[in-house]
Specification:
alpha+beta; 4-stranded antiparallel sheet; two-stranded parallel sheet; 15 helices; 10% strand; globular; binds cobalamin; binds iron/sulfur cluster
Length: 340
Amino acid sequence: MSWRDRARDLGFSAIGVAPVDRLSDAGLRLRIFVDLGRHASMAWMEETIHRRADPRVLWPEARSAVVLGMNYGPEGDALANLGTPAVGNISVYARHRDYHEVMKGRLKEVAGLIARDTGADVKVFVDTAPLMEKPLAGLAGLGWQGKHTNLVSRDFGSWLLLGVILTAAELPADGPAADRCGACRRCLDACPTAALPAPYQIDARRCISYLTIEHAGPIPEDLRPLLGNRIYGCDDCLAVCPWNKFAREAAEMKLKPRPELMAPSLADLAALDDAGFRALFAGSPVKRIGRDRFVRNVAIAIGNSGDPSLVPSLTPLLDDADPVVAEAARWALHRLSERR
Ligand code: B12
Ligand code: SF4
Ligand code: SF4
């Protein structure tokens, strides 16, 4: 069986090959992004910038990038929770098993087959690798970077997770794919925090995904009301994309949502201690941010709920051992009393 056929059997629904020497424009824009400070506190983006901008700096023998996309299309409306302030909204990619874990072994298997078929060396990466996965996916023909900056696929809309294999083999390229955003600007208009300052550009400092997942410490106060009940990541710009009409529900069982993470009650989440947090989020990407950062987000969502019946869930957090959680709880209490 060819490596492509096996990759399909393993659940990769979008597969393509890109040459590694075409990232110069993307690398320049990455430089601008970092120079403008739009990477916020993600210092690792700056530290690894040369490797990101050119995979051959990461691995001089690299000639082609094999990009594989896994469909994680949601069942129903990804934004359904936003109208129910007493529940927390966890973004679609985090409602199921961590995709790094789901993909890792499978990427290694495909890489082994590429090495077998070509006789050339391979290296495997999922997300944590210093690579520009979206520009590579565009060059490999999986889709194009939409105005929300994520890769959009004609077949799966915004809902593809990406993995990359580098190979020393010069494989025939499958892309690039054409930009099909046209005059649309739905994603730009949908962003709750105006984190997309211009088409195809993002400012992570304002992005709810950054603020709720990557950002340590207190979330800037002016942005807190705009978070609503988004407690881990954000899908607003992805979900409004018209190309999602071609999207399908995830077929991979491990990327099906866990029912308890679909619409969890904020009151229950605010009561989580370390052990409870680790048990609830075992195997989920949410686990990575730890109980304190997560409960900080939950406290802000309670503050935004306008629901006075949630005040008792905040009270124990006022004395939380983590000062960031305690401060978020004070802010939330104040906001609830103001709204009353
Ligand atoms: C850092 C990072 C983030 C940051 C920054 C987001 C971003 N858009 O870069 C934060 C924490 C905000 C984030 C959020 C999310 N992420 Co993220 N993230 C990454 C990561 C690790 C690196 C991306 C990167 O290099 N960014 C730097 C910018 C400069 O790169 P870029 O977006 O490709 O930039 C291009 C354009 O935007 C434009 N551009 C950018 N700035 C500027 C400035 C100017 C002046 C100009 C002209 C152009 C321009 O040119 C660039 C090059 O072509 C990748 C994994 C990887 N290794 O690639 C995952 C990745 C991009 N994330 C992913 C996902 C799923 C998400 C979320 C949907 C999660 C969620 N639900 O909360 C959100 C989506 C937010 C959004 N609208 O992008 C997926 C995207 C899959 C896809 N279909 O595209 C990836 C690929 C992970 C994966 N392996 O699947 N993420
Ligand atoms: S993920 Fe949310 S906050 Fe970030 S750019 Fe998209 S809509 Fe805006
Ligand atoms: S919502 Fe519109 S502008 Fe944004 S990525 Fe989709 S097609 Fe492009």
